[in-house]
């Protein structure tokens, strides 16, 4: 049954080892190495019960100490992921993992790293950058990169005794944590939350970081502060990055603020001008519509006024409303047809043809003879018809006053 379980786990890329032995030391030491940055895991099972396990994401090394009783017989199922560079041995006592990388010193089962190394076993060599503004690197899948950017205290503080913000950007998106370390503080033991000034993704958009809350002035002006960048490639493929960084001048920030303020004011003024122009345009269109409607009503009234009032003929009906013509104001069209005055007004609003014979009302030949006289003071033309006068501007002819728009869109509702 155990063999079948191990074969199944092996099929899904988990290495399963069965180790039978009699313990001669106090610990069984298990470790995994890898050249790639992988998620690693070690599990130790005894009698099909998991007794101990450890896991770590995106690492090149993982180790475990399994407690033994000297002289006791053991049959252990050891599950390893990934299956690469596995070492299993018995040891009399615990030691620091992998004897501490980068010349780290093992003390009290902990690796004490040299100045520019980090990690629980000093596996991260810190890249040191002085007097530079950019750095490029190619990261393996899931690799972690640690960079220390150094500035003198005099570079971090301006003439107004204020800190200059730290601006940073990356050519491609990458997870990052940035710490500010005081002089003589090193990454190995100081990458803690109290030193953290940024936690998030760096992108091609410059990120401005205000670290004044975490800055403490040092008594030696030429001492170096360090911005420690911990970058992690979360992708399963190789990633090339270019990191650009600089300290911002407060004068430049003030100039940028003034520029933004000026552009905002100019934009607001332009917006007001656009609103004013649009409003004036709407008012103009509204007034034009009113004037057009007034001219239409005026033209209709002119046509009506040019039609004489007559006495209705008895026993004759209005062709529009079909009511008798008696006892109501009636008018005669140029084509000699008699209709109610109100009916005729409503009809003319719909179309300019006679409802009976379909002859047009806008033909000058059908307009009664008018009397024209010139008023030298007002420079107007007086039109009179049967004691009624109509004042019209000299600029337009009688035809243009009567017809001011095309009535093709209006259909006769009384047909």
TrEMBL record:
Main subcellular localisation: membrane
Domain RING-type: 318-358
Source organism, top-level taxon: Eukaryota
GO molecular function, one term: zinc ion binding
N-terminal signal peptide: 1-23
InterPro entries, A to Z: Znf_RING, Znf_RING-CH
Residue stretches spanning the membrane: 257-278
Any one Gene Ontology cellular component term annotated for this protein: membrane
Keyword terms of this UniProt record: Membrane, Metal-binding, Signal, Transmembrane, Transmembrane helix, Zinc, Zinc-finger
Entry's localization field: Membrane
SMART domains assigned: RING (SM00184), RINGv (SM00744)
PANTHER family registered for this protein in UniProt: E3 UBIQUITIN-PROTEIN LIGASE ATL42 (PTHR46539)
Record-given protein name: RING-type domain-containing protein
């Amino acid at each position: 049954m155990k063999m079948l379980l191990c074969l199944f786990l092996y099929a899904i890329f988990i290495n399963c080892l069965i180790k039978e032995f009699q313990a001669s030391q106090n610990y069984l030491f298990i470790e995994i190495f890898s050249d790639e940055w992988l998620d690693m895991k070690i599990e130790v099972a005894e009698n099909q019960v998991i007794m101990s396990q450890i896991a770590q994401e995106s690492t090149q090394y993982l180790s475990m100490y399994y407690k033994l009783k000297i002289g006791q017989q053991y049959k252990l199922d050891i599950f390893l992921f990934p299956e690469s560079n596995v070492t299993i041995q018995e040891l009399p006592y615990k030691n620091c993992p992998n004897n501490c990388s980068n010349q780290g010193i093992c003390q009290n089962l902990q690796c004490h790293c040299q100045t520019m190394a980090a990690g629980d076993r000093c596996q991260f060599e810190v890249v040191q950058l002085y007097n530079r503004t950019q750095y490029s690197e190619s990261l393996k899948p899931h690799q972690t990169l640690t960079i220390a950017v150094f500035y003198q205290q005099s570079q971090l503080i301006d003439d107004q005794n204020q800190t200059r913000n730290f601006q940073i950007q990356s050519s491609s998106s990458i997870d990052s944590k940035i710490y500010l370390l005081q002089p003589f503080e090193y990454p190995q033991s100081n990458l803690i939350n109290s030193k953290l000034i940024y936690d998030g993704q760096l992108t091609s958009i410059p990120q401005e970081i205000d670290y004044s809350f975490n800055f403490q002035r040092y008594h030696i002006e030429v001492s170096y502060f360090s911005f420690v960048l911990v970058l992690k490639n979360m992708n399963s493929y190789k990633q090339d990055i270019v990191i650009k960084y600089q300290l911002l001048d407060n004068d430049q920030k003030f100039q940028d603020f003034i520029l933004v303020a000026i552009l905002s004011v100019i934009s607001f003024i332009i917006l007001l001008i656009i609103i004013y122009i649009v409003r004036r345009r709407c008012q103009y269109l509204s007034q034009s519509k009113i004037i057009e409607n007034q001219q239409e009503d005026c033209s209709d009234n002119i046509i009506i006024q040019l039609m004489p009032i007559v006495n209705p003929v008895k026993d004759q009906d209005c062709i529009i409303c079909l009511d008798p013509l008696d006892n109501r104001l009636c008018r005669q069209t140029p084509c000699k047809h008699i209709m109610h005055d109100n009916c005729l007004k409503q009809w003319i609003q719909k179309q300019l043809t006679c409802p009976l014979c379909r002859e047009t009302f806008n033909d000058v030949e059908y307009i009664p003879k008018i009397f024209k006289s010139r008023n030298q003071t007002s420079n107007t033309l007086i039109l009179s018809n049967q004691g009624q006068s109509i004042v019209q501007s000299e600029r337009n002819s009688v035809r243009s006053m009567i017809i001011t728009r095309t009535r093709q869109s209006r259909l006769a509702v009384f047909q």
